[in-house]
Amino acid sequence: MMKKRHRILGIIPARGSSKSIPKKNIAPLLGKPLISYTIEEALKSRFLTKLIVSSDDDKVIKIAKKYGAEVPFKRPKELAEDTTPTLPVVQHVVKMMEGLNKITYDWIVLMHATTPLKTVEDIDNAIQKAIKSGADSVASVVRVLDYHPMKMKKIENDRLVEFSDELAAIRGGEMVRRQDLPPAYIRNDCVYVTKRDVLMKENSFFGKDCRPYIMPEERSYNIHEKHDLLIVDALMKAMRKGKFQRTR
Hints:
Elements: E1 8-13, E2 28-29, E3 32-33, H1 34-43, E4 50-54, H2 58-66, H3 86-101, E5 107-110, H4 120-133, E6 137-143, E7 154-156, E8 159-161, H5 165-171, E9 185-195, H6 196-201, E10 210-215, H7 226-240
Parallel strand pairs: 1-4, 1-5, 6-10
Antiparallel strand pairs: 2-3, 5-9, 6-9, 7-8
């Protein structure tokens, strides 16, 4: 248990537009809007002081409030473009919330609505690891197998070549069995926990010391395209019927 009561701000960015799936953040998934799954798990957290949804869209805002998240202000249009990075969006929320509440937060927790299978245990475990380790940040990751970086190639003059001489030397030009590959991990966009000053003063989600929080593959699905919704829908139905057990 953490002895000190840290002030921890949870943020779910959810703009209204999306090119891949219309209104993706509130797309229906098993009869509920996509964003509701992240809101419901985050609200169970033992550590989050506040949970804020940042959106430019009235419908998204209405749904976020219905499921219990706070939306004390609307995101400016200039922070809701297709090309807008996440960093200034999160910084905007921190500035607004600190101004409204006259406090300074210790930690910022970013959670994307497009990763609906994360649990409150994932959120709280990542927060605990960040605080106990004293790191600048913790990012949730999942182990890469079929898409391992040593299997990746680039195309030059219609030929498949290695990305680097180092990889070519490791592989020796031959195929490597999946089970023989060294462990590799990729961020799964479920949870990011960052010290407030690293985010606001260093303009970084990671800082110089970023630690991993490892999650299983079945909780790491990130919905980008329509087929991702179909996959997650089928997986969640299997979980509800007891045909697939979550990894602890």
